[in-house]
Amino acid sequence: xxxxxxxxxxxxxxxxxxxxxxxxxxxxxxxxxxxxxxxxxxxxxxxxxxxxxxxxxxxxxxxxxxxxxxxxxxxxxxxxxxxxxxxxxxxxxxxxxxxxxxxxxxxxxxxxxxxxxxxxxxxxxxxxxxxxxxxxxxxxxxxxxxxxxxxxxxxxxxxxxxxxxxxxxxxxxxxxxxxxxxxxxxxxxxxxxxxxxxxxxxxxxxxxxxxxxxxxxxxxxxxxxxxxxxxxxxxxxxxxxxxxxxxxxxxxxxxxxxxxxxxxxxxxxxxxxxxxxxxxxxxxxxxxxxxxxxxxxxxxxxxxxxxxxxxxxxxxxxxxxxxxxxxxxxxxxxxxxxxxxxxxxxxxxxxxxxxxxx
Length: 358
Known about the structure:
Blueprint: E1 3-9, H1 16-24, E2 33-40, H2 46-53, E3 56-60, H3 68-78, E4 88-91, E5 96-98, H4 102-110, E6 117-124, H5 131-153, E7 165-168, H6 169-175, H7 184-194, E8 200-209, H8 215-246, H9 250-260, H10 264-281, H11 287-307, H12 311-316, H13 320-337
Parallel strand pairs: 1-2, 1-4, 2-3, 6-8
Antiparallel strand pairs: 4-7, 5-8, 6-7
Helix pairs in contact: 1-2, 5-11, 7-8, 8-9, 8-13, 10-11, 10-13
């Protein structure tokens, strides 16, 4: 299969050349893959560095319509000549490293009749930076491996994760990218579900992206990820339920359930508070919080074992209480000020110390 790699990039001069080089460094034949970088409202040298690294570059200047989803939709609707004759369009972030067999694995999945959208395993490129990134590696072993694999097995969609997404060209030719929320990947997953298209997960196609190192970076990421899901539940929950009632299908109902599940750290907080209250009121009620804890441990360790993470990721679980305490003010700010309603770029590692902008 032939591939076009689309890389949306906003002020990514520090890492865009490395991402393009990672694409060129894969084992796939060079004449069957090409890279297109969308330099979106860039105020730096992203476009120049991408060209020098060997990518085709299209530049977008629209300060009234900012966002990753908006940039992708603009590209798919106005630059069809750059991808229309290829078999597959795959989207990766501008801070991404691809495994050598990425294209081979994606091609294998998309060669299966009926498969039109595939999600790679999206891991962490800087897991040893500090306790926060190591804990992120543990979290993604669960959220980007265990859950999508399980949902596929049960007949649901694996869901798109924003990085390492691949589509039969027909999908983007006919749809563009009509997902403009701050969680544009989840939104497009739901739009595909409404069209009866499920996303298939391939654990052997792997991309690695940079995770937040500082509290400020993590705060931007978390408010975007978790606030966006609440907005999507309000907008797409009724549509998916109505479709399920008209034509019962597990994949559609699963989409509603996945949107409705609380963030894991918030769920653990509620379990702890409820467990303390139950035990204080009824001494024999201790069995409930213990059971919840056992389920949580099984859930997390299953993901880590299946993904075969290294020992330092296991040790990072000791910092989970610190992470939960950090999340409390994040949630309180979301309650007081509401979730973010616009896309905000996460600062990259090192930018905060050298004057980089968000």
